[in-house]
Design a protein that fits this description.
The radius of gyration is 29 Å and the shape is globular. The strands form two sheets. The chain has a six-stranded antiparallel β-sheet. A five-stranded antiparallel β-sheet has the order 5-6-7-8-9, with no helix packed on it. Helix 2 crosses helix 3 and helix 3 packs antiparallel against helix 4. Helix content is 26%, strand content 30%. The chain is of the alpha+beta class. The protein binds FE2/S2 (inorganic) cluster. Keywords: 2Fe-2S, Acetylation, Iron, Iron-sulfur, Metal-binding, Phosphoprotein, Repeat. Its cofactor is [2Fe-2S] cluster. This is Rieske domain-containing protein.
Length: 210
């Protein structure tokens, strides 16, 4: 019976017009049914309207789909000259670095607190090129997006601090060059990166016009 009432609301439904009006104007229908069936009829109408208000068209919200096709972000010559550039790739802000003959692309906002990585300096730590976030100086490897930190064994005060990895924190994207053009392909790795938080939802500041 519920299905019947729900079908009545679909625009293509050939159902009886008075019933459609009745569902759209529940008080009217309740009055009609009450005349014929008494209080039990009114109860059925109330329950039906509650059901319809909960889920009228069976729609289920689709999760955000990720676009992963390569996007041209600029000319090779220009990026080599400037050493870095920013781009919006499928609605995601990224920074592209050209460092020591290699390209690297990553989410533009730092995984720690959303700092602007395109304004950071590149330095080597433990022999690994890293972008140093200008806000709180976190170090992120260009090649893998790992967060590096220095650790010391508290039980051995004489030991020198050594560089360790927190694991992959910043999402790294793929850069390819074709015929003088530089392309970025967004990472489709299923793991969750901390930087995702600042690359999506409310923190995503720049939106693609497409
Ligand atoms: S926001 Fe980058 S280190 Fe804090």
């Amino acid at each position: 019976m519920l299905k019947y009432f729900r079908d009545c609301l679909r625009p293509s439904s050939p159902s009886i017009p008075p019933l459609q009006y009745g569902i759209l104007f529940p008080q009217f229908l309740a009055y009609l049914v009450h005349l014929h069936f008494g209080d039990f009829g009114s109860l059925v109408i109330s329950v039906t309207n509650f059901y319809l208000s909960m889920n009228l068209d069976d729609s289920v919200e689709e999760p955000e789909k990720k676009e992963c096709s390569p996007v041209c972000v600029g000319k090779e010559d220009n990026i080599k000259k400037s050493g870095r550039m920013t781009a919006v790739v499928h609605d995601r802000e990224v920074v592209i670095f050209y460092h020591k003959g290699e390209y690297h692309a990553m989410d533009i906002r730092c995984y720690h607190s959303g700092g602007p990585l395109h304004l950071g300096e590149i330095e080597d730590f433990d022999g690994r090129p890293c972008i140093v976030c200008p806000w709180h100086k976190y170090k992120i490897t260009l090649a893998t997006g790992e967060g590096l930190y220095q650790s010391i064994n508290p039980k051995d005060p004489s030991a020198k601090p050594k560089w360790s990895s927190k694991g992959i924190k910043q999402r790294i994207h793929t850069v390819t060059v074709d015929d003088g053009n530089v392309y970025v392909t967004l990472s489709n790795e299923p793991y969750k990166c901390d930087s995702d938080f600042y690359a999506t939802g409310d923190f995503k500041v720049i939106k693609s016009p497409f």
